[in-house]
Design brief:
ABC/ECF_trnsptr_transmembrane, two-stranded antiparallel sheet, two-stranded antiparallel ribbon, mainly alpha, 2 domains, transmembrane helix, 14 helices, globular, 369 residues
């Protein structure tokens, strides 16, 4: 049996690369069948390859957030200007607004085109949220922070703490709800009792999440997370500002179409500015990385399952953006056309669900006694 196929956690970069690929594919289409298929693929992969860690239990929160986004998007379409279309489904009583609020209508006629536009947009955003939630529940945030390059370590620390906030809230919520069930308090009878019950859940959850965040910050401070030395900081700042300035001038010249000196068809000034800006940026990263001293215990190796996982996400993006027909990727709303799935889109969905079988399980299955 291959060593890479044994039960082990996958590299966090692989899961994030796969999820970003699915998110890019979802942002490039409004086909509800394709978006629903991408959500199903993310659910299958997340459920089959997530472990028993605290961050793995946060995926349900992202699913509920996706449902809330779709409902809210459709609700806003109905509430504000739902009559943008010839096919009127129903007519709600319109609320009059003052004359200075022009272009905004509350309620009134609700058309099929407006509802579908809200549904498609909300479903696209919900798919992106589900894909990011799948990566957040599959990738170990501590290993993700440890695998970042030294130059991006401080920025990675901020990103990991921010991304891990929702799983941390989910874990605190499950702990508080479990404690309430063990107490078996009296059932809420009046409205005040129901509000008090919600208060006894929200306040402990936020308090527990805040305490855990402060404990994480304190432990990182004790372990010496941060940069040392002012010389490296000054050189990094100077090189970073130089890179930003050179790339800004290059972008301005490129967008403005400024005349340039050409040699064999190559714009000399633009190429020089871009090369100098990128060089200063790379030098800034190298100088910043030298001031960070860290080691990693038992690092996760990059093997062929990680490569296949990233390739699955890249394949889905390629098939959706470059191979599929535009009329299928963006189905018409007015006049309404039924969405469909072609061969490339079906292949994209197949590639999106492949990591559920190509990757090793996160841990050994438990054997019943």
């Amino acid at each position: 049996m291959l060593r890479s196929a044994l039960p082990r956690p996958l590299h966090p970069f692989a899961w994030w690369g796969y999820a970003i690929g699915l998110a890019v594919a979802a942002s490039s289409t409004t086909n509800p069948l394709l978006l629903a298929g991408l959500i199903g693929a993310a659910i299958v992969v997340a459920m089959s390859r997530r472990g028993s860690n605290p961050w793995a239990n946060s995926f349900a929160l992202y699913l509920w957030l996706a449902v809330f986004i779709v409902v809210l998007r459709v609700g806003f379409r109905i509430l504000f200007g739902g009559g943008d279309g010839p096919t009127v489904l129903l007519t709600l009583p319109e609320m009059p607004l003052p004359s200075w609020v022009r272009g905004i209508r509350l309620l009134g006629p609700v058309s099929l085109e407006a509802v579908l536009a809200g549904l498609y947009d909300g479903l696209r955003l919900a798919t992106i949220v589900v894909c990011i939630g799948a990566a957040n529940s599959l990738a170990n945030p501590k290993k993700l922070l440890a695998s970042l390059p030294a130059a991006l370590y401080e920025l990675g620390t901020i990103m990991v703490v921010a991304v891990s906030a929702l799983p941390q809230l989910g874990e605190s919520l499950q702990r508080v709800v479990r404690a309430r069930r063990l107490r078996r308090g009296s059932a809420a009878r009046s409205r005040r009792d129901r509000l008090r019950a919600v208060e006894t859940i929200i306040v402990p959850v936020l308090s527990d999440a805040l305490e855990r965040s402060l404990a994480l910050a304190a432990s990182m401070d004790v372990r010496g997370y941060g940069r040392s030395g002012s010389g490296g900081r000054r050189r990094t700042l100077a090189l970073g500002l130089g890179a930003i300035g050179l790339l800004t001038v290059w972008a301005f010249r490129f967008l403005a179409g400024s005349p340039d000196v050409r040699l064999a068809g190559v714009p000399i000034v633009s190429v020089a500015l871009a090369a100098a800006g990128l060089g200063c940026g790379v030098a800034a990263l190298r100088v910043a990385g030298r001031s960070v001293r860290r080691t990693q215990y038992r690092p996760i190796r990059w093997r062929w399952p990680e490569t296949l996982t990233v390739l699955c996400g890249a394949t889905a993006v390629l098939l959706v953006t470059a191979v599929a027909e535009p009329t299928v990727v963006f189905p018409a709303i007015s006049p309404f056309a039924w969405p469909s799935l072609t061969g490339p889109l079906l292949l994209a969905l197949a590639a999106a669900v492949l990591p559920a079988t190509l990757t090793p399980p996160p841990s050994m299955p438990k054997v019943a006694p």
